[in-house]
Every structure is written in structure tokens, then in C-alpha cells.
Records
---
Amino acid sequence: MTASTRPDLDSIPAYVPGRNHPGAVKLASNETTFGPLPTAAKAIAEAAEQANRYPDNQALELRAALADFLGVTQENVAVGCGSVALCQELVQITCDASTDEVLFAWRSFEAYPIVTKVGNATAVQVPLTAAHVHDLDAMAAAVTERTKLIFVCNPNNPSGTAVGKAELIRFLDAVPERVLIVLDEAYFEYMRLAEENYPDGVELGRTRPNVVVLRTFSKAYGLAGLRVGYAVGDPAVITALMKVHIPFSVNRVAQAAAIASLESRHELLDRTHTLVLERDRVRDALLAAGYAVPPSETNFIWLPLGERSAEFGEASAEAGVLVRPYGADGVRVTTGDPHENDLFLSFATDPAVRERFSI
Ligand SMILES: *Cc1c(COP(=O)(O)O)cnc(C)c1O
């Protein structure tokens, strides 16, 4: 007889590994295509030599470096085993009853419904607008006395769209201060909104203790395989996060690589300029071929193909490019190197493909 586990976990789908397509180009996980910078590679090798020693559980050096970079104090910064671990920890510090509600847009980051269920709380999902943007007015209206946590993924994964500063401020002001609002800025470094409308969560959070910002080293900083992200917020929220943190889960190698990457950030952020141009080139080519593609402020684009999504993903894989279909909503395509993007474009703009998918 198998031991009993929580029956409510049955509603969480078991992990199903993606089909293997040997030699295919992978534009499915929003990774960067470059390996770590030489300075980061050196820090990684040096830290690995001390693998017999536990890492600093408080990540003091990394938190100090982040505090310095962001213009906050170390007490305002927590780190996690990827920002996805911080998402789960944020549910843990806010929800303690199954009737507690976690509010987020849908479709948005696929981890939100999972971490909500793992935390035994109730997910409340508010549809994106027809333009695939967060419907912040509807989200504010969906807040109840049971709402404990709100995730705003800005820019949004997988639709790529961002909400601007004025809209975001209006939302933050409309939500009661007892509700913790998470601004998940995993793609912050790829945003190119006008300066006066730039929604920088760290700035907006300075005067709002119920706002916490998540950023990550996995995307623009290119360290997805090492698992390190961070939260910036009020010291009380940070202290609570550190209480539920799985001990030593941000390992020594990850901490060293993050510090080195932060020091070399100008080189890393320069790469985002090239990527943004490439992203816009891909979007323009798809628009010209007749696809609907919402404007992207990330390192991917969104094709709202509805019921055709799964079949489109399968056909793209057969053509040698792995993309990410999401149910009956759409397909997310990461921006890779120009030759990888060209391979995807030659598939997607092929007249036979366009005819098959009624583009
Ligand atoms: C990729 C991503 C993250 C975090 O990734 P980690 O690798 O866990 O840091 C968080 N939020 C969103 C919306 C993402 O797309």
C-alpha cells in the first residue's frame, strides 16, 4: 500500500517532460543563447572548488551587492532558488487557510496556479484584455477580504505585454494596503517603454510597504541553470521570506556567479539591446506575414493562435524549432540568435504553413 499524500495535490498535473527532438533549435524556455561571461565562469569554477562547504544561508555578500546596485538596504533584499521559489515562499508567508485567495491574471506565468495549490490556497484568475494585457481595473475589482496576495507579471509571460507606470500606480493605489502585491519583473531588462511611463517596481515600492518586486538572474543575466532570483521589499516581508526559505537552497556556485554577473552587468545588458532589435525584427516579419502579434517588452513574442496552438507547436517542432504552445490560447516563441529566428520565420511565413493555420 502506498503512503497517503495530500489528495488536493491530485489537481496539480504531474510533470510531463517535453518530447525530444534531437538537433532541434530550442526557442521554448526564454533562455539566453550565450554561456556565462568569462568572469562568471571563473567565479563558478572557484566556488565549485569549495563545494564541500555549505553556502552562506543569508547570502550576505550577494544581498549587499544587490542592495548597492538597487539603491536599497540589505534588509530590503531576499534571494531564492530562482524567483520561482520566491513565488512559492510568498504564498507561504501570506496564506494559511484554503479560503485565502491569490489573485493573478490569466494567462500568465504558469507557476502561479501551481504555487497557489501547493500552498493550499485558492487561485482567482482575471482574464487578460482582448489586447493580451493585464486588466488591472478588473483585478482591483476582484479583490475580496480573502485576498492575501496578488501577482502582477510585468511584462507578462507568456503574452509579452507590459503595463505602464501610470496604470500600475493607479492599481497599487486601489488595492488595500493589507494585501501584498508582487510585481514579477523577470523580464525587466528587456523593457523599452518611454522613460516617463517606465514601470520600475523597485522605485514604486520605495513608498509602498505592501509591494514586493521579483527579479531573476535566469533571463537577461543568463544564469538559468544555476537558479538564483531575488525579492526587493519591506524589511518585514523580507524577514518573513527568510523564515520560510529552504535552508541553503541558493547554493555557493549560484551566489558567486550572481555576484560576478552583477559586476559585469554592463556587458550583459548590452546584449539585451541586440536581442530587443532581433525581437522586433521577428515580430515585424510575422506581422507582415499576417500574424497577430502583440507588442513585446520581453525576450519572446506571443502568437494568439487559439485552438490552433498545439498543432502549430507540433508542426514547428517537426520543422526543427521547439516553441511553447499554451493550451488553446497561443504559442510563445523565444527570441534566439538570428539564424535560429530565421529558421522559425522560414517555417512560420511559409505559404503552406500560413494556409494550414489560416493566417
Ligand atoms: C522565468 C520566470 C521567472 C523565474 O525564473 P527563475 O528561473 O525561477 O528565476 C519568474 N517569473 C516569470 C514570469 C518568469 O517568466
---
Amino acid sequence: MSTIRKNLEKIRQAVEEACQRAGRDPSTVRILGASKKQPPQKIREAFEAGLRLIGENYVQEARDKKTALEDLPLQWHLIGPLQTNKARYAVKLFHCIQTIDRPAIVKELSKRAKGLSTPLEVLIEVNVGGEETKAGVNPEELPSLAEQILETPFLELKGLMTIPPYRENPEEVRPFFALLRSLREDLKRRFPEAPLTELSMGMSHDFKVAIEEGATIVRIGTALFGPRDY
Ligand SMILES: *Cc1c(COP(=O)(O)O)cnc(C)c1O
């Protein structure tokens, strides 16, 4: 069995166990392969083992890999920051942009997504730890950004995403995951019509805790693909 297949099996097992602990249905959690700095061949192996969801951090890198993997029905998400001048490429490459964090990028995407046959899915990235170096909106700015997206045709607000502060012990990250979930609940109350189903949270070292706190997408890099190439 290939290493990637074994890794994916192990991750699936851990997802199931975390769901069991939380009383959740495992089919409500999707594994996204975070494949930045990994060669297309590894993504192909993961696809062959059953992975369907891929997250890339850089628009150009995603474009190259999508070309190399054209024959595979993968769903591509952007999980890295989006610059305004890349928006027009991003709307063509990605099914979902997980890193919406400011009004200017919503405005730009609204221009670029005009006329798409299906709306572009987006998640708002929230800075749950209040770290200055991290991307994401502050929780106070979240409702107005959500409202802006909900008023924009061709964009579909599916939920929230976060990269919490790093802690050696994943248990210490739990409050940040719980915060993202409660922010999502607040938004649902405020905008009951919005399809706010997704919580993209949890990476290789803390995804089990994230699932216990309600994650619907876990973004797994090294635990799936091994160390990054460069
Ligand atoms: C790299 C990356 C991941 C995956 O990180 P691992 O620790 O390798 O699992 C998840 N989310 C984002 C936004 C990333 O940039």
C-alpha cells in the first residue's frame, strides 16, 4: 500500500473516532488535502486512495497543478490569502475560496464572478486568536462582511474558516475552535436564510479536537502527504 493511502486510512479512522466521541455522523466531515509545496503526483495518489477535496495556498501553484491533474474530478479550494490582482484567476480555478477577509476582496470577486454558471462558494476567514500577524477578520467585523457577501450575486457564503494560534498541546486550541463555532451560530441567528453550513478548522496536529468542536472540513497537509518539498 502506498504511504499516502496508509496515511489517508489513518486519518479517516481518526475522523471516525472523533465523530464517535462527539456524537456526530462521520459523513458530515470532509477531509481536504492541503497540498501546498507537494508535487502533483502525490495529489494523484491521494485521489486514487479516495480523496476528492484539495486545498492550495497560491494561485499560480494551483494553476500549474490543476493543469497537470486535469483528468481528475477534484474539487479545488483556495486556503491561502488572496490578493486583489489574482481574483480574476481565482474565480476560474477554485470551487471555493476559504480566505475572504476584507470588503475590498468581496468587491473584486463580485466583478470577476459575474456570469459564472454556478455561484462561487466562499468562506470568511476569522482571526480567532487576535494575532496581529494572522489573516482573517476580527470577530467584531464579521457580521458586516457577511452581510456584504450575502448581498453580492454570484457569491455563496458557505461558512467560516480559521487558522488558530499554534499550541503544542491541541487541547489548548479547543477554545478557539469553539469560538469559531459560536460565531457561526451568531451569524445563523442574524441571517437565518444564509447557507452557513461549513466550519473549516483543524490541521494535522489538531484536527481531532476541531472535529469534536464541530469542524466540517479539516485541512490536512503533512499527516497526509508527508513533509513539504521546498
Ligand atoms: C499548510 C496548511 C494546512 C495544513 O497544515 P499541516 O499542519 O501540514 O496539516 C492547513 N491549512 C492551511 C491554511 C495551510 O496553509
